[in-house]
Amino acid sequence: MSQFVINLLFVGASFMLYIGIAIWARAGSTKEFYVAGGGVHPVTNGMATAADWMSAASFISMAGLISVGYVNSSFLMGWTGGFVLLAMLLAPYLRKFGKFTVPDFVGDRFNSKAARVVAVICLLVISTTYVIGQMTGAGVAFARFLEVSSTTGLIIASCIVFVYAVLGGMKGITYTQVAQYVVLIVAYTIPAIFISLQMTGHLLPQTGLFGTHTESGLPMLQKLDEVVRELGFQDYTADVSNKLNMFLFTMSLMIGTAGLPHVIIRFFTVPKVADARWSAGWALVFIAILYTTAPAVASMGRLNLINTIYPDGPSAPALEYAERPQWLQTWEDTGLVRFEDKNNDGRIQMYNEVPAFAETAEARGWAGNELVVNNDILVLANPEIANLPGWVIGLIAAGGIAAALSTAAGLLLAISSAISHDLIKNMINPKISEKGEMLAARISMAVAIAIATWLGINPPGFAAQVVALAFGIAAASIFPVLMMGIFSKRINSKGAVLGMLAGLLSTTIYIFLYLGWFFIPGTNTLANVPDNWLFGISPLSFGAVGAVINFAVAFGVSYLTEEPPQEIQDLVESVRYPKGAGGAVAH
User: Fold this and answer.
1) How many domains does the chain have?
2) Which residues partner with 347 through β-bridges?
3) For this UniProt entry, which segments traverse the membrane (predicted)?
């Protein structure tokens, strides 16, 4: 049986499972569409939350980022820390408030339509920019494993999401995400176990990372350091020089995670306040399985790649291009691996093409780095690089697509809820019937899917830039207003609105200054290099600064203006004690 047929069977079976669950769990009311009826078990919700969170970025890109250097484990620390903040500071209190959406909480807590509108704008920008990466990730997985163009892959993915998200709403998405979690975690860990056994003899990749490299007898990380150093790269375990930027970047990811609307709404689906906290705890357990495996996948994958190109070591002649393995040829067809024989010797030279190392390379007779490998392919290509069985490759195909679809569905639901519930129901037409609201929600979802597909085919910028904007805005706008709304009775609507706007504008302007206005190439005001950064703060790290600006403006304005009405202060007081909340209610 060919690899294509195996991939098709695995992916097709997963699609049938998702559609079957959506039909079984289809939403029949607005409560089921927005919060799955409010009766999801904490363990089930934890698993669904883990799938909702572990996007294409986590499944496909994260190990690729860490493979460049262990310093990129800041992604793990930031993203995981965000769930701790959610569990301790936000989830139980928001659940007690008993609303359907984040703008719902903001609008009612601050008794302000302006605050609701600003929250809706932030939510739409965050979710729309974030969903682009998910659709693009699905396109990459389809392009490689189903041998179709990325555009065709995106359209197929959109059709699948349309069926189970529009039909099932949060109820269908919840149980579909449970299935998707099982698919993606099995797909991620099984290849990692195979590779760990091959390279270190350890069954668990987490221990294999710190074990002994079987072939050389050296500690795994020491072996990797030596190999990458010999090719002119920085040591894999090297420290970072700019500690301030590292701290702010980790904080931006942390509070950005805690402010992501599609993650927050998952905690509105459980029966009780205590269940919200338990859901976050279970989500951390399920996420940790993948996140503790990712560094091992990254390091072993990078060493495997280098060993493929330099089978006798970096000091020996490189692999002849004509003898390259089949997986390399296949990935070349996708454009994510590119080879250029610069010295016409028929061999693949791969090294760090920096001035300091260029002299050494020139002395060896090299004429420039010849192989460019997109980091995003590492997880997807790992089973092929390690010569694992075809069914493992089929499994990783289904897992990569599941990761992209699960998060895309959650983001699209957040967009749909903001439009149908927060704008139409609460502001434009409060007298709309439940049937009319359900229709509006489904139409909003369909339109959101169409826009997300178009943006996935024609992305406004490099994916990392777009995701940076999503996290930056969540950190600088949503997280602070939720924290102040829960823990401060003195913050009024004027402070909340101006604080959100200050955080939103300062963060987006700073990002656009370096990455281009609205990510249009060539429109950046300053070159995106450390020498130009304000106090050495990267655009990717500015979300934490934007959050501080939000807090400062909100407190300053609130204390210079009138206190909130007494009933709002009493409401905040009651929310601080997260006990005895009823079901989510519509307004």
Assistant:
1) 1
2) 320
3) 6-25, 76-94, 114-133, 145-166, 178-197, 246-268, 280-298, 391-419, 439-457, 463-484, 496-520, 540-560
